[in-house]
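Contributing new records

If you add data, match the layout below exactly. Sequence lines come first and carry their own label; structure lines follow with theirs. Keep one chain per record. Anything else will be rejected by the validation script.
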Amino acid sequence: MKKLIKTLKNIWSIEELRNKITFTLLLIFIYIIGTHIVLPGIDPNKLEELAKGNSKTSGGLLGLLDTFVGGSFNRASIFALGIMPYISASIFMQLMTILVPQIAKIQKEGESGRKKINQWTRYLTVGVTAFQAIAYISFLTQTYGSALIPAYSNYFWISTVVILTVGTLFVMWLGEKITDKGLGNGTSIIIMIGILGRLPQAIVQEWAFRTTRGAGGLLIMLIEIVFLIAVIMGLIMLIQGTRRVPVNYAKQIVGNRQFGGARNFLPLKVNASGVMPIIFAQAILFLVAFITGLGSTTQASFLNDHTNIWYMVIYSVAVIGFTFLYTALIFNPKQMADELKRNNGFIPGVKPGQPTADYIGTIMDRITLPGAVLLAFVGILPGICQVAFVGMTQSFSTFFGGTSLLIMVGVVLDTLQQIETQLLMRQYDGLMSSGRIQGRQTATTTV
């Protein structure tokens, strides 16, 4: 406890770090206020009554989106779409830089290329947001039609599309400002705040349910919390897990000085794909159920039932498949081998060039398999917890795994890593007495 207080004092004593934390908290506060401002043309009182009995956003893709935006999707707020259109546009542009050589060439132009791609991403965000806003209005009219104010019906469509688009762009701007002048990755922090916004309500609901069952219910609640802590610790190990490949650099004698000759390590992440396979798998299963209409039939209702064994099997296979696919897209062993060769680096016992690329690719395939299996297990943990802990509420079970927990743990690690870096730069002790905190971006796959 004494070391914790000392560390907090050290953090607050650094003016730059203090300003970053204050600035980040201020923008987060602005975002939270915006998530509670209801769109014009909607009666907030009727909306609240209808939202209590609404089950359309409790699962599937809509439930995932509502989780990311902190429930503002179901509250019909001006930030109902949150930053998700920008995330979709960013993912699309990231894939394009891999699949389209012309865009990949622009990305390699340095700062100017990066700015150009970011500008294209913003333009694409406007289009994606406008399209999603139209779909969201259809959802509102079908789900909360009685909450709409008739006198405003002539202006509701156009005003809602404009406000939702501007709201998403404003949230995107908040995320960029947090990244530039605040602490951590602004986009990830905004998503994490949205997820954490539902945690207190989920705990209260679980507590209310368990307390009605007497002392036995309280014991189960305690066991659930202990298990949640254990899951978080295991997830930290999965995110930080790396395979370190030894790399030697050739010695160069220039005059009386020696350059190179150092030994380093090439860190290959066990979970290089991050949370993307889980998002893809959830979206695909939801779309299959929605397009084919299987979700309404008794034979295939398991596609919307996270506790069903067949859902878990299909979901796990999808996550493992998407993990290998996405890792293959973002991981380029040939480029890494070329970078090593260009910098006079080599892996002991492996010839430079194509043999090095084959060696790195083989190691990556071997460590991706256990990483994919563990990632699939994390994805189905909420359903397992609902079965194991009988009566666990669905809102509370989502924090035991899946996308929500992966994003929260990853963002917290990234933020703590930045704080620790600031402390070590100024000759302070780190946040841990031994070892270093590694975020998702510490162990990169580039040389």
